[in-house]
Amino acid sequence: MALNRKLTREEKAIREQQAELQRQLEAVQSEAKGQEAALQTAAKVAGLSAYRVVDALYDLLEVVPETPTTRSGKNGTVEVPVDKTEEVRTERLLTMLETVIESADPELLSRLQCEDREGVEMRHLEREERREQRGRGKTTTPTPIQNVQKPLAASQDDDEDEDQTPQWAQTAP
Question: Could you give phi then psi for residue 65, rounded to 5 degrees?
Fold first, then answer.
């Protein structure tokens, strides 16, 4: 009889562990769904701008597309993309950026992040000023910025290039 009780206790402990793991799995899945929904919304709102940044980073870091596969068929030889959604290329880019950021000077990163936050605040104040000038006295409070690691933009080495807008940032005619 003691053996039966011990098995029951062990089974109970296993079931409790399974239930806890199931709760943890559901929490992770829920968080992943939320992140995916946020990404989908961001893609709709800022898709072209985000693509321009990624495309510029591809060029700056020379992250070339995956080599396409060549197939022969009744219509002749056709190149078929291997990475149609560019997931592999984007992952390679992210890995490169993480390595660059990890090896960068912490003081430099801190200064750049501070300058970025100051720029965000300055643009917010400028918008408020324009609103007030137009007679719209309603003020808004900026939404707090989430601390998300963002890739650093490449610095310009020449001061004479400062007035030129990069090709990737130019809007289509």
Answer: -65, 160
Residue 74 confidence (pLDDT):
85
Which is nearest to 151 in space by CA: 85, 104, 84, 118?
104
Residue of 45, 56, 39, 48 lying closest to 148 (CA atoms): 39
Residue 64: what residue type? V
Q: What is the pLDDT of residue 158?
A: 44
C-alpha 167/C-alpha 59 separation (Å) is 11
Instruction: Go through the chain and tell me how many residues it has.
Output: 173
Predicted TM-score of the model (pTM)? 0.52
> For residue 104, what is the DSSP state?
S
Contact 122, 142 (CB under 8 A): no
Give the torsion sign (CA, 152, 157, 160, 166).
negative
Given a contact cutoff of 8 angstroms between Cβ atoms, the answer to whether 100 and 94 are in contact is: no
Residue boundaries of the structural domains of the chain: 10-62
Tokens describing residue 98: 């993480």
Structure-token match 């939404």, residue found = 143
Q: How far is Cα 173 from Cα 160, in angstroms, rounded to an integer?
A: 25
